[in-house]
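During data preparation, we tokenized the protein backbone, and the record follows.
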Amino acid sequence: MLDMPTHPFTSMISKLAAHTALSGQDFTALAGLPHSVCLYDQGSYLVRAGSSFDECSILVSGFAFSYKITRQGLRQIVSIHHPGDIVGFRQINVGTADCNVQTLTRCEIATIRQSTLRGLASHRTAIGNALIANTLIDASIYREWMMNIGRRNARTRVAHLLCEFAARLDAQGAAPGQPYKLPMSQAQLGDALGLTAVHVNRSIKGLVNDGLVTQDHRIIAFPAWDRLKVEADFNSEYLQLGGQAAMSGYS
């Protein structure tokens, strides 16, 4: 594997290599993709619904989110993008974008042409397989989110998303069980969970009062992780974190 701690594709390549055996040549080919890097302020649009483009955005740092808007103007957040995610990859073989993507925080974004990534995937089978695996894991996360919104109560929904953030951040190298800064407001959490901000606030306060989480503004910590997992009905298998989840107690 390449030693490239400061390369903008490090997180993306690590994510692709987590479930597919990539050769040294594969790593070199991915690291050598032509790209440009830009900083985006919080709230910037990366993709607009209905737009057509030939670019993919690699999230180098920060967080972003995809969402759809109803005719009545109500927003549903459908996914959270973490460092290493390929934003816009869903449109690589189809037409226009079906949802908006905005930055949750200040983000560093590396941009590559879809046609370049598509060509690399077609010439290097392992990279193509890694991209397919990545897409299947995204689909698994969508299914879990559907379950969360459709069959869990407000408190469990909130607890589950807090657990998901913890597990995904740990997989990116954060120390297991450490507090993290939640990059979403209570209104944004509500839009992701099908709840009002009032329900989110009440649910978080209930988890705090029961000693399952602690909160200092947006800093969340887990003094009773095992109990919280039960409360959240959380099992990290849908995230496909592999051995990292087991070692850290997130499975």
User: Anything to note?
Assistant: The chain has a mean pLDDT of 90.
